[in-house]
Amino acid sequence: MPDRHRANPFTGYNFRFEVDGVGEAAFREFSGLTFEVDQVEYRDGDDPYLHARKQYGLRKFTNLQAKRGITTDLQLYNWWQEVLNGPPQLRDGAIVLTDELQVDRLRWSFRNAFITKWEGPSFNATSNDVAIEMIEISVDRVELTLAAA
């Protein structure tokens, strides 16, 4: 007999992007939730073992990349202008995964972010592709939490 109370996995297309000071920003694709810890090899000079010990080192959070359709809302571009004219206002934000009913389920909160790259759309008169812009966002830290339901 099948389990009728089976939890279905969340789908990757139900997400929302939030940044302090920026209104709604709809993105088609979001990537870069990659976190690493450097390993440091260390060996005392009088250590009886002939191998290095491994310890953890610096934590790294890769830049986030957001690809979206063109919009006439200039709030993200104004943030980019702050970076160009300096010093940028560091902002906090989140990528929120929702379920099919648009209820928040998981939240990747990031801290001290600023835009490091702005890529305009590609234009091709023989193509029917949507004009997509891409921004890359540098972050200090990312934390995953369960969203308050």
UniProtKB/TrEMBL annotation:
<dbReference type="InterPro" id="IPR010667">
    <property type="entry name" value="Phage_T4_Gp19"/>
</dbReference>
<protein>
    <submittedName>
        <fullName>Phage tail protein</fullName>
    </submittedName>
</protein>
<dbReference type="GO" id="GO:0005198">
    <property type="term" value="F:structural molecule activity"/>
</dbReference>
<dbReference type="InterPro" id="IPR011747">
    <property type="entry name" value="CHP02241"/>
</dbReference>
<dbReference type="Pfam" id="PF06841">
    <property type="entry name" value="Phage_T4_gp19"/>
</dbReference>
